[in-house]
Amino acid sequence: MAKPASSGFNAVMFITLAKNLKSTPLPVADDPRWARIVARDKSADGEFWYSVATTGVYCRPSCPSRRANPRNVQLHGTLDQARATGFRPCRRCNPNGPSLEAGNAAMVADACRRIEQSEEEPSLAELADAAGRSAGHFHRIFKAVTGLTPKDYAAAHRAARVRQGLEDGASVTTAIYDAGFNSSGRFYEKSTGMLGMTPTRYRAGGAHEEIRFAVGESSLGTILVASSQKGVVSILLGDDPDALVRDLQDRFPQARLIGGDRDYEALVARVVGFVEAPALGLDLPLDVRGTAFQQRVWQALRDIPAGRTVSYAEIAQRIGAPKATRAIAAACAANNLAVAIPCHRVIRRDGALSGYAWGAERKRALLDREADGSNAPGSAYRSARR
């Protein structure tokens, strides 16, 4: 029997309709890219652009401008497609060039180089003028990017230069002037805060410095906490209490180690409690000793909220050193203050945990606890008096 003439026609119509439906773009509000625009997702920058008919501009996804009505928005897979609309580039997000965040990071990185290369500390006005910004605006951007004020950054850099000079065998006076202090009086006003002790004692390897310490036990193993007169100087994790004490001795070979009393044990118990239940938070006076670059990295780590992770590349971007991912990793490895400076929250770009000075399993456990807010089993505590 011959097939009805209309059946072939219907099949053709069905195929044509299916092709048309497949080629019809989603409404902007239903496109997954719109959610990234709403979230101002910086990671989407460079992947696509969007234009707004009512304002006549095109933008990058992270644009901070007021959210447009999706009915007036068109999405573009390339920058050339966005330009082809005839609209002008948004002045707030600068879709044709680097993002505002990247521009600020580059500006701050240049200011850091100026500070590091100057014989004397540049003034805020000089730094702001070189950046083409007002002093107040520059100060806010610098602190947002580095976590430090320009003055604090300069002080950290000069302290590192003094430490290096003293460690290389220079006289105290030579180290002071080589670091950019134009008078010994100005240096001695701040020397103890910079070095944690007097310059002479630092040059002697920290001889006679007193370091108080105690050891606690947690579900993640042994925790050693040590403090100078200024604040907590080390938090170490491990399996063997004696090995941690030897590690502390290696870090402070000339210091006098003193076992903590009952009051100090209470401080150690706070650290143990935080490891078991990160939701408790941890706010301790710290004696952070490191180079200016390390302190920039460590401050950026302290700004990562519990339950969040970032990549080494993201930290590099935040401190204005986008090519310094290896140096970022080295600064994380040099961190003496486990959990207080949360280097465990830094992972590789592909999501892998990467290295951790106190073991990958501890890193995973800390991240899991912070992610779900759960409390681990109770901990035992004991002190070590030596």
Helices and strands in order, then pairings?
Elements: H1 5-23, H2 32-38, E1 49-52, E2 57-59, E3 73-76, H3 79-83, E4 88-89, H4 100-117, H5 124-131, H6 135-146, H7 150-167, H8 172-178, H9 184-195, H10 199-203, E5 210-218, E6 221-227, E7 232-238, H11 241-251, E8 256-259, H12 262-276, H13 292-302, E9 310-311, H14 312-318, H15 325-333, E10 346-347, H16 360-372
Parallel strand pairs: 2-4, 5-8, 9-10
Antiparallel strand pairs: 1-2, 1-3, 5-6, 6-7
Helix content: 40-55%
Uncertain residue ranges: 3-9, 14-18, 374-386
Largest sheet: 4 strands, mixed
Give the overall average pLDDT. 78
Structure summary, number of beta strands: 10
**Which percent band covers the strand fraction?**
5-15%
N-to-C series of helices and strands: HHEEEHEHHHHHHHEEEHEHHEHHEH
Question: What would you say this structure looks like, in words?
Answer:
This protein has helices spanning 5-23, 32-38, 79-83, 100-117, 124-131, 135-146, 150-167, 172-178, 184-195, 199-203, 241-251, 262-276, 292-302, 312-318, 325-333, 360-372; strands at residues 49-52, 57-59, 73-76, 88-89, 210-218, 221-227, 232-238, 256-259, 310-311, 346-347. The chain is of the alpha/beta class and 386 residues long. The strands form 3 sheets. The protein has a 4-stranded mixed sheet with strand order 3-1-2-4. It has a 4-stranded mixed sheet with strand order 7-6-5-8, with helices on both faces. A two-stranded parallel sheet has the order 9-10. A hairpin with a 4-residue loop joins strand 6 and strand 7 (232-238). The longest helix is centred in the first third of the chain and has 19 residues, at 5-23. Mean pLDDT is 78; it is low at 3-9, 14-18 and 374-386.
